[in-house]
Write a structure and sequence with these properties.
By secondary structure, this protein is α+β, with helices and mostly antiparallel strands. Helix 2 packs across helix 3. The chain folds into two domains: 137 residues, 2-Layer Sandwich (Zincin-like); 54 residues, Roll (SH3 type barrels). InterPro entries: SprT-like_domain.
């Protein structure tokens, strides 16, 4: 997929950044359906080209953020070699510079969140509560909320199964599946539907 074909997934003003980052690299961009496990993926192909996948259901600014994350892998490997850790200091440094350098494409209310994240980039998008909450704004019309908003003993539905919230364990939450009575750990920003 060429850079210009990506325009419909991206916010305005991103193409100059992408053209610079893509450089002379041969990059195959694959737009995928929504995946629960990840938003994007990077891998170097046996022929020396690069493949990046990004969920096509993402909001434009999040799509660009994820694409930037994946391109940071390519650029970090190119600059520092393939022996570096995929989400190590070299990747963090590269991703930070890319985020700060392209901050102008993000909405004004998102810029401070991106800049805060860029100070110490994380490998997993879900580890930034501010970003997760920002990109779920449009979902607020439904009945879902974050598990951290519930109280001990509250009942909720997650992926069509009913649970009770037993309590907080360090950073996460211990819950009981009401169908099979097994205990499960939930992250604070899991989206759930409270049962009244």
């Amino acid at each position: 997929m060429s850079i210009t074909n990506l325009e419909r997934f991206l916010p305005e003003g991103t193409l100059p950044f992408l053209k610079t980052w893509f450089g002379e690299h041969i990059i195959h961009i694959k737009i995928t359906r929504k995946r629960q496990s990840k938003l994007g993926d990077y891998r170097k192909m046996p022929d020396g080209s690069h493949q990046i996948t990004v969920n096509g259901t993402l909001q434009p600014e999040l799509f660009f953020f994820v694409l930037t994350h994946e391109l940071a892998h390519l650029l970090a490997f190119q600059e520092f070699g393939y022996r570096i850790s995929p989400h190590g200091q070299e990747w963090k440094q590269t991703f930070r510079m890319m985020l700060v350098g392209s901050i102008s494409v993000y909405a004004n209310d998102l810029k401070p969140i991106i800049l805060k994240f860029a100070k110490a980039p994380k490998a997993n998008f879900m580890s930034s509560p501010d970003l997760v909450k920002y990109f779920h704004i449009e979902d607020c019309e439904d009945e879902s909320l974050y598990i951290e908003d519930l109280a001990d003993g509250d009942l909720f539905i997650y992926r069509n199964e009913r649970y009770s919230l037993d309590g907080k364990r360090k950073k996460n939450y211990l819950c009981t599946n009401l169908e099979n009575t097994k205990k499960y750990i939930f992250r604070p920003l899991a989206r759930v539907e409270k049962i009244s």
